[in-house]
Write a structure and sequence with these properties.
Elements (H helix, E strand, L loop, with lengths): L8 H4 L8 E5 L5 H11 L3 E5 L10 H4 L9 E4 L8 E4 L1 H12 L7 H29 L10 H21 L12 H14 L15 H10 L2 H6 L8
Parallel strand pairs: 1-2
Antiparallel strand pairs: 1-3, 3-4
Helix pairs in contact: 2-4, 2-7, 5-6, 5-7
Length: 235
């Protein structure tokens, strides 16, 4: 039986199955990257719902695992060398799980780095820009009289969708025929932009052909459908 007592976070969210990967998350665009990956790989894991609305990520237990106070984070009881490993940052977790399982990240070095560049594209551009657009369109920022901040993120989000549209014009998935962590990283954010954020009209979603096709194909995957609901929000 794995001993995770060295991780302070387990005092607040005890592990019922300490031999499984412990997932601390919420089904947000960043959170579902990891739950989808876990579902796709078939790794055994135990999800813990972290209520960001109640500021649970800023408590000492959560900060002991992720000092940046964001979801998701994991503990793998069977990390490198068989020792437990705590890890935060969704992109880093995706790479780690891909390398652990040998899935969704090409073995060929050139294709591997090409995949990683598209993961970084999501992490550095799509996530931050789409998130800001969501704030200024749906949340508190929508009440600002000055629409220049919103329009800035609208323009940049449209540009980024154009980059993705061009990439997918001749490919089923971001890396071609193979579904990878680049797709897993990006699906939830594009879904949120036109769904939860309701920004489809702003970014001229109707003019796109390849991104909607890719999104539909991704959302049709059973593991994606399951991962989008994990951890389960309270009723």
């Amino acid at each position: 039986m794995s001993d995770l007592s060295a991780f302070k976070i387990t005092q607040r969210w005890p592990a019922q199955h300490p031999d499984r990967i412990q997932l601390y998350s919420l089904p947000t665009p960043n959170g579902v990257k990891v739950s989808i990956m876990l579902e796709e790989t078939g790794l055994a894991y135990e999800p813990h719902l972290i209520d960001i609305g109640a500021n649970e990520t800023w408590g000492p237990e959560y900060l002991s695992l992720n000092p940046n106070g964001k979801i998701p984070a994991i503990i793998d009881p069977d990390g490198p060398g068989g020792k437990p490993l705590g890890l935060f940052e969704s992109g880093a977790i995706l790479v780690y799980l891909a390398e652990k399982t040998g899935k969704f990240l090409p073995a060929d070095p050139a294709a591997r780095y090409e995949t990683l560049q598209w993961v970084m594209f999501q992490m550095a551009a799509i996530g931050p820009m789409f998130g800001q657009l969501g704030f200024f369109h749906r949340f508190a920022g929508k009440d600002y009289e000055d629409k220049r901040p919103r329009d800035r993120y609208v323009a940049e989000s449209k540009r980024l969708l154009g980059v993705l549209e061009d990439r997918l014009a001749t490919r089923a998935w971001i890396m071609g025929d193979d579904y990878t962590i680049a797709d897993i990283a990006t699906l939830g954010w594009v879904r949120n932009l036109v769904g939860f954020y309701g920004a489809g009209e702003l970014v001229d979603w109707a003019s796109l052909k390849h991104v909607p096709r890719w999104l539909e194909a991704g959302l049709a995957r059973p593991a994606v459908q399951r991962g989008l609901e994990i951890p389960k929000r309270p009723a």
